Amino acid sequence: MHHMRAFLIGTATAALLAAGASAKDDITVAMQLEPPHLDPTSAAAGAIDSVLYSNVFEGLTRFMADGSVAPGLAQSWEISDDGLTYTFTLRDGVTFHDGSGMDAEDVKFTFDRILAEDSANAQKALYGGITAVEVMDPQTVQMTLAEPNGSLLFNLAWGDAVIVAPESIENIKQNPVGTGAFKFVEWKQGDSISIARNDEYWGDAPALNSATFKFISDPTAAFAAVMAEDVDVFTGFPAPENLPQFEADPRFQVLVGSTEGETILSTNNARAPFDNPLVRKALAHAIDRKAIIDGAMYGYGTPIGTHFAPHNPAYVDLTGDTAYDPEKAKELLAEAGLADGFETTLHLPPPSYARRGGEIIAAQLAEVGIKAEITNVEWAQWLETVFRGKDFGLTIVSHTEPMDIGIYANPDYYFQYDNADFQAIMTELNGTTDPETRDALLADAQRMIAADNVNGFLFQLANPTVAKAEVQGLWKDAPTQATDLTGVSWAD
User: Fold this and answer.
1) What distance in Å separates the CA atoms of residue 455 and residue 284, rounded to the nearest whole number?
2) Which CATH entry fits the domain spanning 259-462: 1.10.260.100, 3.40.50.720, 1.20.1250.20, 3.10.105.10?
């Protein structure tokens, strides 16, 4: 189409084509997972951010496509010399989609709600060090910390800390009201969510007038929808085996980026026999990462030996410490008094990495005498049983939050790792702003959880996006779970 157009210049056809192309201002984006509800500040489900982050909701700071942190609703800030007081200057004239003004009171409301006793915020621990949020004037908010936190501005960019208003909080799960460049229009449950341009937006107007997110969980259906051009973009495309076919088709572009998704064989550290470090070490040596990446992901993904993204400059490659060695795994089990192996459960949520990877891992574990009974679960059930209920032996999940090694310092987190030495490293890290010292502490943290084999560290999830060739401005990498459409447009 592109190549033909050059030869038709000056003809009526060219004029029509050009007019048609430049007039295109809506987009249909498909993704595998539907959000359980639409409040990013009260659930762990990354699918909520995939739809709403930066489009509908905004935080004081925000992640850019390259993972850097930029001003969001806060246009600037000052940090006191002792690192304990942050004074944020808010943008002027920002309104929520319902027409109410966004000011310092809303920021205070948002953080008081995150820190409340009955808070449902999945990342409450990230903001636990905030001791007070005070309104200085409508455009100025002061945040006081118990101790310095070198990650505060980063943490404020998470979807869990987007600014919400008391006026609209009651129905936020069904009717999200934010300050973003798009406003929520409709949620057809089981099918799609639509959003439309917010004409009152404080920032640059988006090129798109409207967008629809479609939820297609089945990999075969995903392939069919893209091939038939029923959707314009499929983010996190679930059938990697089909990517070469799209790469060879001029109608499409394939973006293979990296994510913050550490894909792990999560292990219930509080449940026997996984409370025994020897058993966890046996588990690690029973796993062949390459076979999982090749078999489940068709080679897309980077092996990891700890809970950290390989593209991060502070990453330490520890994959060699847990090389695939089934004989060693058997010896370790015997040493743990389990020469005959044992039985456990393996809960698998819907994504391909879990369902496909789980079959491969179950077979690998069986080779060393560990019989893992597979239970396929939907996300809502996974959140209820595994994440909140902690009722599991093993599960497979990709932790897509950015720089989230700190979860290992929370003994109540679902894999229930409780190590005072690790917690001390994280406390020190939070109090440190010097980049070299931070990198050294992060390296110590990575080595500690690897040596303890807290979980089976598998691979960093790749982020394959298949889109029509004319779509421009999509994020290639996923520094946070987001489908940021604010800079997306159609090429003329």
Assistant:
1) 8
2) 3.10.105.10
